[in-house]
Amino acid sequence: MQKTLQKKTWGRPAMPSAAYFRRQADICLRLSLISSDGEVSNRLIIMAKEYATKADALEEAAADPPPAGVPDLAGNQAGLRLGPNPPEPPAEC
Question: What's the predicted TM-score (pTM) here?
Answer without folding.
Answer: 0.56
